[in-house]
């Protein structure tokens, strides 16, 4: 297994343009228009697998975060500048058999549920993912589970850590559902218009804000406060619930995607009978998933 190790000078100077790795560079092809494309003349097994995957599924397949033009695929970049201090490094899949099995997992367990609008532009399939936070010219980790995420979504790629995929069929199915929830949530957070805007509008004035009254005394009081504003989750800060703080858009969407996939309308209406905003947001989220092409 080859692992991309943090290179301080690299991170500080040119994260997007260079890679500190012993991996072979991807074969350049049409790099001026699409650095994800591989040469049609390249018949190495890895390249054929990547080319066939794209032809069949519409998403590009990567096993290395260095693109054909030498550019480093930066999944740390997101649309809000506040998040740009996050950097990801990867442990690569080392054998063709591992890469082939990883591609099969995506094709058999994830893609059948994702319509074209929900499919990532590319999949980066690796063994492991490591999350780093940039602080000036240095980088640090939190020494908790957030250091090794299962999935990371960037603007142009979704990276998945394949070493976490269980071998047991039932556990594998459950794990795929976990990944699907993350993929769906990330896609919806970046969407706008129609039912997506209608969903976000219900609790728009509360997102990321603080309750202006007394701080809730316990978890039950805090959740009641959240429910009244249409939330079914709480806001977390440094891994702990922040009493009196309303969830972010991302936290809210993630919670409702899970609810829409796991609960029936009757169950939601019974559980949240006293909270019409929650029932409305559940209905809107199910419509959003259908519109975007989620296939159950």
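^ Assign residues to that structure.
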């Amino acid at each position: 297994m080859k692992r991309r190790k943090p290179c301080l000078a690299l991170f500080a100077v040119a994260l997007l343009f260079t890679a500190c790795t012993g991996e072979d560079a991807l074969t350049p092809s049409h790099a001026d228009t699409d650095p994800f494309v591989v040469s049609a003349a390249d018949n190495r097994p890895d390249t054929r697998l990547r080319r066939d995957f794209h032809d069949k599924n519409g998403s590009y397949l990567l096993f290395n975060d260095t693109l054909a033009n030498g550019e480093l695929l930066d999944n740390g970049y997101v649309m809000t500048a506040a998040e740009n201090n996050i950097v990801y490094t990867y442990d690569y899949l080392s054998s063709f058999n591992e890469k082939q099995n990883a591609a099969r997992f995506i094709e058999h367990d994830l893609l059948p549920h994702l319509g074209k609008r929900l499919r990532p532009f590319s999949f980066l399939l690796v063994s492991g993912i490591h999350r780093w936070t940039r602080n000036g010219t240095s980088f640090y980790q939190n020494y908790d589970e957030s250091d090794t995420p299962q999935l990371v979504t960037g603007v142009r790629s979704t990276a998945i850590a394949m070493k976490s995929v269980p071998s047991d069929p039932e556990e594998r199915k459950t794990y795929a559902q976990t990944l699907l929830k993350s993929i769906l949530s990330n896609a919806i957070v970046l969407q706008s218009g129609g039912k997506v805007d209608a969903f976000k509008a219900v609790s728009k004035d509360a997102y990321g804000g603080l309750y202006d009254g007394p701080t809730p005394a316990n978890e039950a009081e805090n959740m009641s406060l959240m429910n009244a504003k249409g939330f079914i989750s709480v806001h977390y800060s440094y891994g702990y619930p922040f009493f009196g703080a309303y969830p972010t858009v991302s936290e809210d969407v993630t919670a409702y995607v899970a609810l829409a996939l796991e609960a029936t309308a009757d169950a939601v209406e019974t559980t949240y009978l006293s909270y019409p905003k929650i029932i409305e947001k559940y209905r809107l989220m199910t419509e959003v998933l259908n519109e975007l092409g989620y296939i159950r």
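Confidence is low (pLDDT under 50) at residues 7-32, 78-82.
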